[in-house]
Automatic annotation (TrEMBL):
The lineage of its organism: unclassified sequences, metagenomes, ecological metagenomes. CDD domains: ATP-synt_V_A-type_beta_N. This is ATPase F1/V1/A1 complex alpha/beta subunit nucleotide-binding domain-containing protein. The keyword Nuclease does not apply. Residues 116-248 form the ATPase F1/V1/A1 complex alpha/beta subunit nucleotide-binding domain. Pfam families: ATP-synt_ab, ATP-synt_ab_N. GO terms for biological process: ATP metabolic process; proton transmembrane transport. InterPro entries: ATPase_F1/V1/A1_a/bsu_N, ATPase_F1/V1/A1_a/bsu_nucl-bd, P-loop_NTPase, V-ATPase_su_B/beta. The keyword Manganese does not apply.
Length: 248
């Protein structure tokens, strides 16, 4: 959506679009040029009547409402509850863009995270503070391995608070339901926070999903003093969304 005669708009800020029937859609500023603003509408532009709609610039970036109650909840790729549970009453709202961390200032990674998968634990162990890519291909059970990691991973030691932040990008409804059911049936959902972006959700939401997940993880780690494992699936879909947005 191209909006003209706009003052003081900034890249990545969000907007509310009120349609003629009173419904609200949300969007994010992708480009600013003089008094013109290009807005990506999350819910799509179908049905928007330009003459009967109004747009409100909120002058803030995307934010995540956080509190200890986010544990055990399932959110959309934009951080909205989608498990039919109550809205989160936030202790605070955090900018998902965050702040960069100096990698040189971090502790040397030497604390083992046990995944329960012998080939990972024995041959290529996962250590706190490090990344572990898992490459897969068509027909391979990557969803099953991802779910196994989410429900089994833990840190060794007594009294250690541990949480899993799981973000899925561009997955099918069937895969999303598989992950939810698997964690609910095993009880692992109680220590997990899930962000699900489906294949039919907007590409701009897919780009924001890992940022929401990382913001939740930083809150759990830095403010609730928990050990956190972040699982991002599927990075190929994320990269395709980046390509789609960059070519727009």
């Amino acid at each position: 959506m191209l909006v003209e005669m706009v003052d003081e708009a900034k890249y990545s800020h969000i907007v509310d679009i009120e349609l003629g029937d009173g419904s609200i859609r949300h969007g994010q500023i992708l480009q600013v040029e003089n008094d013109k603003v290009l807005v990506q509408v999350f819910e799509g532009t179908r049905g928007i009547d330009v003459d009967k709609s109004t747009i409100r610039f909120l002058a803030r970036p995307l934010e995540l409402a956080v509190s200890p109650d986010i544990l055990g909840r399932v959110f959309s790729g934009l951080g909205e509850p989608k498990d039919n549970g109550p809205a989160i009453i936030p202790d605070k709202r955090l900018d998902i863009n965050g702040k960069p961390i100096n990698p040189y200032a971090r502790d040397y990674p030497n604390e083992f995270i046990q995944t329960g998968i012998s080939t990972i634990d024995g041959l290529n162990p996962l250590v706190r503070g490090q990344k572990l890519p898992i490459f897969s291909g068509a027909g391979l059970p990557h969803d099953q391995i991802t779910a196994q990691l989410a429900r089994q991973a833990t840190v060794l030691g007594k009294g250690e608070e541990f949480a899993v932040v799981f973000a899925a990008m561009g997955i099918t409804f069937e895969s999303a339901q598989f992950f939810i059911n698997d964690l609910e049936e095993t009880g692992a959902i109680e220590r997990a926070v899930m962000f699900l972006n489906l294949a039919n959700d907007p590409a701009i939401e897919r780009i924001a999903t890992p940022r929401f997940a990382l913001t939740a993880a930083e809150y759990l780690a830095f403010e609730l003093d928990m050990h956190v494992l972040i699982i991002l699936n599927d990075m190929t879909n994320y990269c395709e969304a980046l390509r789609e947005i960059s070519a727009a």
